[in-house]
Amino acid sequence: MSSSVISSISSACGLKRPAAVIGLLLGICLPLVSGEPVQPTSSWARSVLLPAASVNLSAPTPGIISAQPIPEGSRVTAGQVILELDAREEEARLQEAQAQKDLATAEAARAEAAYLRAKELFDSNFQSQRQYDDAKAAYDRGRALIKQAEAGIVAAQYRLDRKTVRAPFDGLLLRRFKAPGEAIENFETVARLIDDSYLEMLLFADASRFGTVQIGQTHTIELLDGPNAGTQVAAEVVSVDPVIDPASGTFRFKLRVQNGNKVAVGLSARLIASAEATP
Q1: Which of 204, 197, 267, 178 is nearest to 54 (CA)?
Q2: Spatial contact of 177 and 142, defined as CB atoms under 8 Å apart
Q3: Do 62 and 186 meet the contact criterion of CB atoms below 8 Å apart?
Q4: Distance between CA atoms of 187 and 122, rounded to whole angstroms?
Q5: β 164-166/81-85 pair status
Q6: pLDDT tens digit sequence for 48-100
Q7: CA separation for the pair 85, 242 (Å, rounded)
Q8: SS3 of 93, please?
Q9: Per-residue pLDDT tens for 115-131?
Q10: Distance between CA atoms of 82 and 68, rounded to whole angstroms?
């Protein structure tokens, strides 16, 4: 971009630094990610309502998808199964580990009985030290084998659990990117989950407003599209950058909007209240 163009934009927008002009243009080019910067001569700003959280879900292990019980667009609760991979081998390993524990428990019980008899005979001077020591060693080994088998069960259960993808929080299953029968790799994205319990609006304000926007203030925003375009709703300031970005001469602040029938993720909105809102 030529210096003459930057100078023209600086004069038109009242920005004193070329870096602020570049930051302004970048903000305008990326409204879905960061919202448009607030111009110093304007009392409103436009952005997009975003969910409280949005995560791409993946499985930490490769495999073949065997089930996806939740349809797209459905509400889910934390811990609910989103996707299952073929886990027949892992289930067999878990059964094997449980059988190993049963075997170890039986051997340990037999060794304990032999040890108790040996101890009684040893205390009565009817058995040698060596026989007692052998019985004690067999008893200790039996207890160690039980612990080993229990650890094997934990490991087998862990490998089995990695074949299931669960919702990390209550939310909306927005997208499924794979279908049953398809193969996936390690940490490949299989679904997208959003938390829309409340919505957020991220704005960029000029340095002239720094200090006037404070956490806890209540502002008013106006919906710009959707069936309720023109509706005004309240929004609370929940975060404000403590410093000004030196490259753009702006700072960020975030508004929180309670979800309801009138607002939805992805709608455009603008801030129509002044920065000097009522705390």
Answers
A1: 197
A2: no
A3: yes
A4: 60
A5: antiparallel
A6: 999 999 999 999 999 999 999 999 999 999 999 999 999 999 999 999 999 99
A7: 45
A8: helix
A9: 999 888 888 888 889 99
A10: 6
